[in-house]
Write a structure and sequence with these properties.
Shape: globular
Structural class: mainly alpha
Helix content: 55-70%
Distance between the termini: 41 Å
Largest sheet: none
Strand content: under 5%
Radius of gyration: 18 Å
Number of helices: 7
């Protein structure tokens, strides 16, 4: 069980590192000044290697959650708040991937980021990706179980997560 915990933790930290790379790609790969970077500023650009790795992780997370629902039953699954948070995280990533596919396979508009409407699917996908990243980072809190000093902190942070979710639904 301990080795399994370490492997899962290392894999999840790798996923978080990929999220950081994907979030910072415009700064790293974009080049140029003012946040505009050639190919990265295009609305209909292809997903890069980091984004494909994130897609693979998300699909694996969805598969894992589906197996857990199948094995434990939906009612038992839905009673755990961590599972609800996982479901929301996976749903947000899935919506983000769907919107990116709509942009990529839809009309090929050559417009700059500043000219996009606020309801543009690419901007909505990026916003959903940011919210999903917050949920992914909060998922690290489950690792607190392994530490005797941080374990009690998990209870108070778990209650704060409920308040954060309420706050997200207000906006």
């Amino acid at each position: 069980p301990f080795v399994k915990f370490i492997n899962h933790s290392a894999s999840y930290i790798t996923f978080l590192l990929l999220l950081i790379l994907a979030s910072q790609e415009q700064l790293v790969l974009g080049g140029g000044g003012g946040g505009r970077g050639g190919d990265m500023a295009r609305r209909d650009r292809e997903p890069n290697v980091v984004e494909w790795c994130i897609v693979a992780y998300v699909l694996a997370f969805i598969w894992s959650e589906m197996k857990e629902i199948w094995e434990s039953g939906f009612l038992t699954y839905s009673r755990d708040l961590w599972n609800i948070m996982d479901f929301m995280q996976n749903t947000l990533y899935l919506a983000c991937m769907t919107l990116r596919a709509v942009v990529y396979f839809g009309q090929h508009l050559q417009i700059e980021r500043e000219e996009m409407a606020s309801s543009d699917p690419m901007l909505v996908a990026e916003a959903l990706f940011a919210v999903a990243n917050i949920f992914s980072t909060m998922r690290l809190l489950i690792l607190f179980i392994a530490n005797s000093h941080l374990g009690p902190l998990q209870i108070s942070v778990g209650r704060m997560i409920i308040d954060i979710i309420k706050f997200l639904f207000i906006f």
